[in-house]
Amino acid sequence: MIRSGLDPEAPTLFVSECVFMYMPDNETRRLLSALSATFRNSCVCQYEPIVGNGDPFGQMMEENLSKAGVAGADSGLLKVRSNQDHVNRLYQAGYTISTACDMYAAYETIMTNQQRRHASRSEFLDELEEFVLIMKHYSFSMGSTSEFYIGRNLCMLGKDSRLGFDEKRSIARIE
Questions:
Q1: 8 Å CB contact between 102 and 47
Q2: What are the tens digits of pLDDT across the range 19-45?
Q3: Is the dihedral of CA 147, 148, 150, 156 positive or negative?
Q4: pLDDT > 90: percent of the chain
Q5: Around Cβ 152, how many Cβ atoms within 10 Å?
């Protein structure tokens, strides 16, 4: 990335959407560590599934993805099973502040009332219970290096949060 002209000193946001679930967890950890060490003014934003620890929907999700050949025993999907696991992985990779919540909490606390009204008009939201169940099995997590002021503000909880991470429904780790 640096050889192609990306400035490691510039504030940088890395976005991952359902990528790390497919990768061996040790490779993801190595990549995240390299990013935080190289790009000292960086923030990582991730959207990943969380299969939980034994609830029926999570078990079904895990079984279906395993049958499809998506989830190997060392995959991020099976190794990083909760919001707390996402927060810990980011923190261990060198992101000095990390935050996570499930997507239903994000829907309720990060999205505005207008955005929720717009989403509720979507046809697929006919079954609210199913929507809630699915959303609780996906994680929105962020990690920021200590030097990246904007990233730190994005990862904060409660009234200091720029994204609306709720203190009661989000997990954070701050150095």
A1: no
A2: 999 999 999 999 999 999 999 889 999
A3: negative
A4: 37
A5: 19
Which pTM value belongs to this model? 0.86
Q: Where are the domains of the chain?
A: 12-174
Nearest Cα residue to 81 out of 97, 61, 105: 61
Q: Which of 58, 56, 32 is nearest to 44 (CA)?
A: 32
What CATH class is the domain 12-174?
alpha beta
Residue 144 three-state SS: strand
Cα 4 to Cα 1, 7, 8, 12, 31, distances in angstroms: 5, 9, 11, 15, 18
Whether the Cβ atoms of residue 75 and residue 44 lie closer than 8 Å to each other: no
Helices assigned H by DSSP within 13-163 = 25-38, 56-67, 76-79, 83-92, 103-109, 113-120, 128-135, 149-155
| Bridge partners (DSSP) listed for residue 142 | 45, 99
Rounded CA separation 87/97 (Å): 9
